[in-house]
Structure formats: C-alpha cells, structure tokens
Design goal:
Layout: E1 35-37, E2 40-42, E3 49-53, E4 60-65, H1 72-76, H2 80-101, E5 109-110, E6 116-124, E7 127-131, H3 137-150, E8 154-158, H4 165-177, E9 184-186, H5 191-200, E10 206-210, H6 213-225, E11 230-234, E12 240-243, H7 249-261, E13 273-277, H8 281-292, H9 313-328, E14 332-335, E15 350-353, H10 360-363, E16 370-376, H11 379-386, E17 394-398, H12 402-411, E18 416-419, E19 438-439, E20 452-460
Parallel strand pairs: 7-8, 7-10, 8-9, 10-11, 12-13, 12-17, 13-16, 15-16, 17-18
Antiparallel strand pairs: 1-2, 3-4, 5-6, 6-20, 11-19, 14-15
C-alpha cells in the first residue's frame, strides 16, 4: 500500500525490484483521439489528424484529431515510477486541495465613510483558455483546470501536440464523473493554429500558458490585440543552485542532480547552473560524476529505470548541439555527452565542470540532462552572478547556516527558493516566476486571484431602503 507521497506505509521508499512490471497500453486500447467538446467526442472541422509517437521506441502510437480555428509514460517517455508517484500523485493532491477551496472563496465587508454599506464579491472570470506543455502533460492539465473550476469558470484546454493522450483520457473521466457539458473542453492541436486561436479569441476571458518565454510573449501580444484577456504565464528558467562549503555535500550532490536530471532535464525548474564554493568544488564534481554514472537509463516501463528518452528528435538534437557548444567554448566534459543507444531518443546524464558565465551552457535554457557546475569565491559574488539572467523562476541554496539561508534566499531574484532541497513543490505553495520567467502564480491560495474578478458593491443606507 502506497501513501500519497510515494512511500510505503512505514515511510520507506518502494524498492523498484519488488514492484510488478507495468504493462504499456496497447494501441487498440487507446479509445480517445478526437476533440472533447461539450462532453462529446468531435471530429475536427478540417478533418486533419496528427500522429503521436513513443519517444522511447520511435514508434507511432496513434493519430489524433487536430483542432484548428475551431497515456503518460508511453506518450512522454518519462519513467513509469515518476509518472505514478509524482505526476499522478501530484495531480490527485492538487484536485483535492482546490476541491476544498470551492466553498471558501468569499469577499469582504468594508468600513467606508458616511452612511454606506460596502462589500466585495469574487466572481468567475468566465471562459479560461489553457495551453499546456509536453513535459508534465497530466500534472499541468490539473494545475490549470483545478483552480479555474473551483472558482466557477469553464475551461478550453489545448494539450501539447507531442503528448495529447492523457488529457483526452481525463476528458473521458470528466464525462464519467458527471461534469456538465461544456465545463471542460479539450482541443488537441498545434500552437500556431489551436494555441493562437485560444490566445486571440474574443470569447475567451483569460489564458494560462506554461511553456517557453518566446511563445509566452506571442500569447501576451495576441491577448492584448484581441480583448485584453488576462494572462498568466509560467515560462522558462536558468535556475541557480548555490552550494556553500558548509553544506552537507552528499545531500547537495543528490538534490542538485535531482534538479538537473529529473524528467531527463526537461523541467523549467531544472538546476541548470550549479554554483559551488571553490574550497569544495573538486569534491563536489567528483561526487557528482560518481552519482551520475549510477543513473539507470532504459525502458520507461521498467521500474528499475530512472532516466528515459527526450521528448522528440528536435529536442534530442538541440541538447546534443548544446553539448557540443560546451566542448568548443572550453568547458570540461566530465561524463556523458552522447546518446545512450541506437533506438529511441536517449541522452546520457551529462556533467560539465569549469563552466564560465559567458558560455551558452550557462546562459541558455538547455531542457536536457546536462549539469553545469561553476565555481565561486564569496557570497556577494555568487548572488550577483546568480541574478545575472533574464529569468527568475527558481533557485536553491545549500548551507548549514540559517543566517546565510535567509539572507541569500532574500537576495535571489526568483519566485521560488529551495533551501537544502530541490523541486519541493506542493499544492498549497504558490509557484511562478520573476522577470521573463512569467507573470502570476499557480497553486496555493494565490492562484485563486488569477481566476476571479473582484466586484465592489456599495449601498446607500437611508430610510427609503427596505428589506
């Protein structure tokens, strides 16, 4: 029996070898490939479809109806245990959390001058468009619909073209659960067509997007040029992870690699710039290489696997090109740096040392399993370097000093700062970025403000007003 945090009832993490081997869906078992509108499965108006592939094998899974201006591990390639214990578990917790908010969203009574009664109401925004990425298809689906629905909105959601299957399956569950028609609508398709239509549609009142900064800018522009719909954006990151000499070095190595390699590095929160104090730098690099070489890459459906393929050929080639740039610019390749096997899109967990701030590895979002380790001398220096980026999504600090943990986390320009941990996300805690990492917040109570309009009602009290 597994608890919700992915451990057994006695708190011990599950032994992958003791778990039954999960069986992937057969193509014949995939029933939902059409658009889900008004609780019905609809064909696209233009009759077009597009294929979705298994990145672990390169084989086509099925064809999906493509919306126009009108299953997790198999579809995305992430290891089964990660899908089950993190993505699915996080989705359940998020739904339960926001279900608890549904009857607790309320306004305030305000004391004002003279003989007036004044109060506020929180009303639904209306129709909310949601455009989600391929790296966490199920979890991002739930992050978007849960706060929107608990505030009384309806949703039109576009899953990524690479990973539409889990969203469509959830559509079937939504109908089975008894949702009224039209509350949740799912329109698979491509960004320039279906995504652009959501961003510019005059009947959509708000759009929430998770993805690249470049596409986020296009969505905000389209929203402004249409009906000035409100926009929340959760975008890219070039996240600093700062390791001080007084930290628990083994813990820092473990957590920094969780940040760098989790989901094959395909995370906006990836620990893509690891700054290590010079007195422990060599030891940190040695331990990191030792740890990276133990990572098991292979079939995502095998419980022993902790490292799966990249999402598609384009991403695969981009990552390897970034690796080559690191070599050319003078960073030291400590391990990895090439594909794992001929079949599929696997890249070895890769570590570079002697990375400098001017290198592409240290400036551009890689979105792959590449850990870049930089050296620093002082706290003041590392804070300045950590903040020297257009991004500001997440950061981490490893130290045994409470004073340093507080001062450094306060100085870092990031929406989330983890201390002595990494990727510790909770449904109750807001998540979002500074600067070009986005606008607005998801999760927690803060997300509710993104899905409601505040109305002020002022009533003049006099003898003519009767009940």
């Amino acid at each position: 029996v597994m608890a919700q945090n992915g451990t057994t009832e006695n708190g011990v993490p599950p032994n992958p070898a003791a778990l039954p081997l999960p069986q992937p869906c057969r193509v014949s078992e995939i029933k939902h490939t059409k658009l889900f509108i008004n609780n019905e499965w609809q064909s696209s108006v233009n009759g077009k479809t597009f294929p979705t592939f298994n990145p672990a094998t390169g084989e086509k899974i099925c064809d999906v109806e493509e919306a126009d201006k009108t299953m997790e591990s198999m579809d995305s390639g992430k290891p089964f245990l990660q899908s089950f214990f993190i993505d699915l578990d996080g989705s359940i917790k998020t739904l339960r959390y926001y279900a608890g908010w549904a009857d607790k969203i309320h306004g305030k009574t305000l004391p004002v001058d003279d003989n007036f009664m004044c109060f506020t109401k929180h009303e639904p925004v209306g129709v909310c468009g949601a455009i989600i990425p391929w790296n966490f298809p199920l979890l991002m689906f739930v992050w978007k619909i849960a706060p929107a629905l608990c505030c009384g909105n309806t949703v039109v959601i576009k899953p990524a073209e690479q990973t539409p299957l889990t969203a469509l399956h959830v559509g079937a569950l939504i109908k089975e659960a008894g949702f009224p028609p039209g509350v949740v609508n799912i329109v698979p398709g491509f960004g320039p067509t279906a995504g652009a239509a959501i961003a510019s549609h005059m009947g959509i009142d708000k759009v929430a997007f998770t993805g690249s900064t470049e596409v986020g800018q296009l969505i905000k522009e389209a929203a402004a040029k249409s009906n000035l719909k409100r926009v929340t954006l959760e975008l890219g990151g070039k996240n600093p992870c700062i390791v001080f000499a007084d930290s628990d070095l083994q813990l820092a190595v473990q957590e920094a690699q969780k940040g760098a390699f989790y989901n094959q590095g395909q995370c906006c929160t990836a620990a893509s710039r690891v700054f290590v104090e010079e007195s422990v730098y060599d030891e940190f690099v040695r331990l990191s290489v030792e740890s990276a070489k133990k990572i098991v890459a292979g079939d995502p459906m095998d419980p022993q696997t902790s490292h799966g393929p990249q999402i598609d050929q384009q991403q695969f080639e981009k990552i390897l090109e970034m690796v080559e740039s690191g070599k050319k610019e003078g960073a030291k390749l400590e391990c990895g740096g090439c594909s794992v096997q001929d079949k599929g899109l696997f890249i070895q967990p890769t570590i570079f040392s002697d990375v400098k701030d001017h290198m592409r590895l240290a400036k551009e979002e890689i979105f792959g399993p590449v850990q870049c380790i930089l050296k620093f001398k002082s706290q003041e220096e590392v804070i300045e370097r950590a903040n020297n980026t257009h991004y500001g999504l997440a950061a981490a600090v490893f130290t045994r000093s409470v004073e340093r943990a507080v001062s450094v986390s306060s100085a870092l320009e990031a929406g989330t700062v983890w201390v002595n941990c990494y990727n510790a996300l909770h449904a109750q805690a807001p998540f979002g970025g500074y600067k070009m990492s986005g606008n607005g917040r998801e999760l927690g109570e803060y997300a509710l403000a993104e899905y409601t309009e505040v109305k002020t009602v002022t009533i003049k009290l006099n003898e003519q007003l009767t009940v």
